[in-house]
């Protein structure tokens, strides 16, 4: 790939700010290109632009991949490992790579071949010992940092990408693990791939593994060329270390404008006046160092005048490319790895595996069992034959309607905000259709969501002495199920439209409280101007259905003045909510842009 004069500007507080000022370079198949520079020099920005993931700023310059511009199908041939790559916490290493293989590898491969490819990657990356360990996260112990990085790389090399981009794959790792990862990148490149990686502070052993190097300083190019020729180049412009130094450390010092233990050229000495020097330690002339800004300007000038023009000429000469490759790269057709149904079933299984730990955690089970036992004891063998007993029992039915209207909203609300990063990442490489993800994600929770209410209902129903026939019990459970699915829809819609957990919980609390108050238990004779509110409340419809199941006809004292027929209106209202909220959630997910984090 080649890129010339890449510039990037963002609007900061109204005025444009230049992040990258004309960067040129290239990397060919078989090469590892390292992007180095101090923190904030623009490495990640450049990598993102080259990987087709530029942010909201304006990009100028030309970027070509084997002489062709970035195209849709190229997206599938690029692997991109970000700095804080997202992985599912509760999946094992093997599950993570297998699901990625099933979703990303082409349709021409069978399911078995895809699974084999995932296993090959596990062995290639030396992950066989931890293949059954959970990935883990902040609250769950899992694989080590180095293993996690290798899983992220594995996720991308699965698809055999022509171009692999990595943002700081070695940060936070010890030098041996870092070397292992860079050696791996080297091996991947030797297979005919182009690898471009940002790197923070490589050891000297690591530095020598790179074929090409781009050194950035404050968004400007200080060096582009072979990594092995970087030191001779800086020597040729009068900058060389005065003591034995790791070349990477020397280059970063220079890019930072720090010239301690570095000889500076006479041009820089002459150019800089005494007032531009910063005083260090004592007053002798030898202890004055050029300012960081002067060093930066000198290095940018030196590169521009001595190397840039020559290099740009080389870059602008097009590389030969076969017609077949050209056709693949320029084709704008989207290619999905699997059919819609397969995407749905893979995502469904992945969803269940990832979430079963949350749903079936002892904390949740204890919470539900404890609540149901307390309710059972409070309403122990309740008797609706007296007016007081009837009102008491209706209170229990209302509590059930509220409890199972409240709980699912607050679990579903986190679904999309939490998975936003993963969804963005996977959708960026066309792993699946949004509709397949949405349907799988919203249905994979159901079996788990409906498991706890059954336990709850069994305990409460029989302890409280509600109508003890199979039909009454099953109709009550069915009503609770409808309420849960409707409430879940509301949670999904709020989460998907706000994509921010704090805002979503605030809105959900207000909505759920309003629905609860409008539920027909506290105020039965609701003023006409506000009575429409209760028709939107799933608590209202659930409560009325539960009353209908227990007492037929429902005594007027328990319900509103509205005549209650066979319950079809309430069922229809709940079904309309189930569908309506989900459609709203889907549309929000499709159209709402995530807030910048
Ligand atoms: N969208 C943006 N809006 C405002 N500033 C931005 C934007 N994107 C990048 N920057 C700024 O551009 C500079 C370069 O950022 P970048 O993340 O590319 O640096 P980096 O070299 O990768 O740093 P590090 O090594 O610390 O990750 C930073 O000062 C950053 O704040």
From TrEMBL:
Could you tell me which SMART domains the record lists for this protein?
AAA
GO cellular component entries: membrane
Q: Give the residue spans that cross the bilayer.
A: 362-382, 394-416, 446-464, 470-492, 504-523, 571-589
Domain ABC transporter, first and last residues per copy:
1-243
Superkingdom: Eukaryota
Under CDD domains, the record lists: ABCG_EPDR
Q: Which GO terms describe its molecular function?
A: ATP binding
Its localization reads: Membrane
Keyword flag ATP-binding: yes
Protein topology in the membrane:
Multi-pass membrane protein
- Keywords, ordered alphabetically: ATP-binding, Membrane, Nucleotide-binding, Transmembrane, Transmembrane helix, Transport
Protein's UniProt keywords contain ATP-binding: yes
Q: What is its main location?
A: membrane
Q: Give the InterPro entries listed for this entry.
A: AAA+_ATPase (IPR003593), ABC2_TM (IPR013525), ABC_transporter-like_ATP-bd (IPR003439), ABC_transporter-like_CS (IPR017871), ABCG_transporters (IPR050352), P-loop_NTPase (IPR027417)
Record's family?
Belongs to the ABC transporter superfamily. ABCG family. Eye pigment precursor importer (TC 3.A.1.204) subfamily.
What this protein is called in its record is ABC transporter domain-containing protein
